[in-house]
Design a protein that fits this description.
Blueprint (H helix, E strand, L loop, with lengths): L3 H4 L22 H18 L3 H14 L4 H13 L3 H14 L4 H13 L3 H12 L7 H14 L3 H14 L3 H14 L2 H14 L4 H8 L5
Helix pairs in contact: 2-3, 2-4, 3-4, 4-5, 5-6, 6-7, 6-8, 7-8, 8-9, 8-10, 9-10, 10-11
């Protein structure tokens, strides 16, 4: 199975030349129009698993509009899939530098930094993503931040993020995160409560199987 950080990467949310907060790049002029159309193609190819073709489209986007932040975000995702972490980090940092309100890019950069063990900066990126009022992916980012915190040995922070994720959009993964964090904190009742919710809402999930096996480190 692919690692959590890769599974949790955020796609560019829009098929228009805009950031995740809805701040649109001007569509005036043929260059911006070409960039928008190429970005639609790039996203389509990426979602169909044609990463090489998507990367070529991204090159066309950036040729038409070198300040197209979402293109750098998608470029970062593709480079991560290809195993080029250094290139991915450069692309994601470029996306963030072009639009500091791009919560998707900050989420992805935070995941990459966490995977690299740069926990403090990872927290900063997650916090800045979560601070964006219009960001629709907060539950996903709380899950990512909590998982990263647990990896860093910060069970209290992990438990806090798990509670936030489960209050917004509970999933088997977020309930499992809460169980693991509360177990490390010695909160048996909280673990039991999470287990009950997992059994009720996601009885056939891989997380439920891990709980039944007591495979806390899987």
């Amino acid at each position: 199975a692919q690692p959590f950080w890769l599974a949790a990467l955020a796609l560019v949310l829009g098929l228009t030349a805009c950031s995740s907060t809805g701040t649109a790049v001007s569509a005036d002029g043929s260059a911006q129009q070409r960039a928008r159309l190429r970005m639609e193609l790039a996203l389509g190819y990426f979602q169909n698993g044609q990463s090489a073709v998507a990367m070529e489209e991204i090159r066309q986007v950036l040729s038409a509009d070198p300040r197209h932040g979402p293109a750098y975000n998608l470029q970062g995702l593709i480079l991560l899939q290809q195993g080029d972490r250094a290139g991915a980090e450069r692309s994601l940092r470029k996306a963030v530098s072009l639009d500091g309100h791009d919560a998707d890019a900050r989420h992805n950069l935070g995941l990459l930094l966490c995977e690299q063990g740069a926990y403090d900066e990872s927290v900063q990126q997650f916090d800045q993503a979560l601070a964006e009022p219009a960001y629709a992916g907060k539950s996903r980012t709380h899950l990512a931040a909590g998982t990263c915190a647990l990896q860093a040995g910060q069970a209290a922070q992990a438990a806090s993020h798990a509670r936030a994720a489960n209050a917004q959009q509970p999933s088997a993964a977020s309930l499992w995160l809460g169980m693991r964090a509360e177990r490390q904190l010695g909160h048996a009742q909280a673990v039991s409560d999470y287990a009950g919710r997992l059994q009720q809402q996601f009885p056939d999930s891989a997380e439920m199987q891990r709980y039944q096996r007591q495979a806390w480190n899987d």
